[in-house]
């Protein structure tokens, strides 16, 4: 596991070569100076497809830390390119809304999928074409088994709040999803804490990750 290098730290968002739409959106949202987790992770994720394990407390900007590189990597094509798994419906909605605000006018279609809502409605929305999915493990598995999410075609995977996933007993579901993502090129784990069980499990689906505290 490699520690993040000092050379990757950035002082302002202008330092990284973001596309015009994203630069404008960040400026309008008042994003000028990155938080510590953003300063350490975004340059690495923008510079390569290396896997990432990022640890920072809630409220320190973790969503933008993985959301900005995901936005930069995806194109408005109607084909799902990235999947973010969250432990709860509330967090999935929050993450999707923040990524939607960060992308500005890029035009990525972002869809949330979670339990407790009409499964047929989710199916119809997914079948229309989605660039980025933010969801909870159970509903993502349901949609995959029904043929509405094609996990094998998705290249970027992000697990948000990994410690809560473990506490809530979702890790078997997470591993099921990961195993189906056979063409995954980049994996990101973000969490407030990393219990040993999470670190042990991460070995199963990350390769030579950067570790950022």
Q: What are the SSEs and their pairings?
A:
Elements: E1 2-3, H1 20-28, H2 36-47, E2 52-55, H3 62-73, E3 82-85, H4 89-102, E4 110-113, H5 119-127, E5 132-135, H6 137-145, E6 156-160, H7 162-167, H8 171-180, E7 186-191, H9 196-205, E8 210-212
Parallel strand pairs: 1-8, 2-7, 2-8, 3-5, 3-6, 4-5, 6-7
Helix pairs in contact: 2-3, 3-4, 6-8
Description:
- This protein has 213 residues and is α/β, with parallel strands linked by helices.
- The chain is built from nine helices and eight strands.
- It has helices at 20-28, 36-47, 62-73, 89-102, 119-127, 137-145, 162-167, 171-180, 196-205, and strands at 2-3, 52-55, 82-85, 110-113, 132-135, 156-160, 186-191, 210-212.
- Strands 1-8-2-7-6-3-5-4 form an eight-stranded parallel beta sheet, sandwiched between helices.
- α5 (119-127) links the parallel β4 (110-113) and β5 (132-135).
List keywords for this structure.
disordered N terminus; 15% strand; globular; 213 residues; alpha/beta; 8-stranded parallel sheet
Order of the strands making up the biggest sheet: 1-8-2-7-6-3-5-4
Arithmetic mean pLDDT? 89
The parts where pLDDT drops under 50 for at least 5 residues are 1-7
N-to-C series of helices and strands: EHHEHEHEHEHEHHEHE
Number of β-strand runs: 8
- Main beta sheet: strand number and arrangement? 8 strands, parallel
Compute the CA-based radius of gyration. 16 Å
Helix percentage: 40-55%
Rounded to the nearest angstrom, the distance between the terminal CA atoms is 12 Å
Given helix and strand content, the structural type is alpha/beta
Strand content: 15-25%
Number of helices: 9
Seen as an oligomer or otherwise, the chain set is single chain
Shape: globular
């Amino acid at each position: 596991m490699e520690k993040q290098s000092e050379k990757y730290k950035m002082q302002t968002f202008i330092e990284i070569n973001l596309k015009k739409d994203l630069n404008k959106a960040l400026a309008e949202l008042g994003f000028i100076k990155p938080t510590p987790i953003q300063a350490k992770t975004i340059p690495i994720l923008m510079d390569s497809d290396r896997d990432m394990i990022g640890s920072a407390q809630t409220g320190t900007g973790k969503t933008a830390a993985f959301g900005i590189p995901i936005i930069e990597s995806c194109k408005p094509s109607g084909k799902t390119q990235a999947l973010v798994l969250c432990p709860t419906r509330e967090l999935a909605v929050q993450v999707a809304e923040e990524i939607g605000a960060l992308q500005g006018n890029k035009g990525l279609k972002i869809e949330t999928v979670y339990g407790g809502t009409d499964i047929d409605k989710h199916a119809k929305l997914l079948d229309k074409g989605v660039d980025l999915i933010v969801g909870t493990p159970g509903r993502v598995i349901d949609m995959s088994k029904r043929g509405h999410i094609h996990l094998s075609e998705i290249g970027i995977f992000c697990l948000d709040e990994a410690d809560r996933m473990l506490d809530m007993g979702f890790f078997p579901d997470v591993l099921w999803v990961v195993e189906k993502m056979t063409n995954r090129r980049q994996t990101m784990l973000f969490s407030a804490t990393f219990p040993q069980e999470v670190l042990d499990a991460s070995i199963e689906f990350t390769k030579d990750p950067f570790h950022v505290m």
